[in-house]
What does this fold into?
Amino acid sequence: EVKLLESGGGLVQPGQSLRLSCAASGFTFSDHGMSWVRQAPGKGLEWVSAILGGGGSTHHASSLEGRFTISRDNSKNTLYLQMDNLRPEDTGVYFCARCSGRSCLWSWFDPWGQGTLVTVSS
Amino acid sequence: QSALTQPASVSGSPGQSITISCTGTTSDIGNYNYVSWYQQHPGKAPKLLLYDVTKRPSGVSIRFSGSKSGNTASLTISGLQAEDEADYYCSSYTGSSLWVFGGGTKLTVV
It folds into this structure.
């Protein structure tokens, strides 16, 4: 069974950093691109970042203004999201999701993890 | 990249059919057949319902179907059931901006 389990969320103050992790199991991790998608409280979904199955090639939503970095460790079957200079508007649940192929281009997201809550507040 | 436009809410009775629209632009839905739909129950993770506009993953009921015309994609749910009550999101590949989601539609089965 394919499983994705996020961790690392919590309460931080504006300007601080946080690193999220997503542990994958049940499939060959390096064969799939991976993405992060977030959801502000009571709001819709917003795509955040994506990374190629082999790592190296990454994409981020332009709205992030370079504050977030996606990475992966295929030896540990783990996806990461480094979030710097956090703002209150970054508050929400962060989901990791598997892309259908090695690249997330032209892909879909399936499955999704259960999400981890990030709260940015002073 | 602006979010795709979905109706905020739709409703239907058990056994009926409903359609949720998802309107984008020539930069996303109108230019690519990479539209997917997701179902999200409260407090749960989104679940893939359709991909590439019309394709159903294994395990998804045939009651869910998709279509596209111009810049608008649609999700139709036939034979509504109580468990279909959830939020539904469309998504489209956009090229340079990669992925954009709709604002979500809350389906109420009355």
The first strand of chain A starts at residue 3 and ends at 7. The mean pLDDT of chain A is 96.
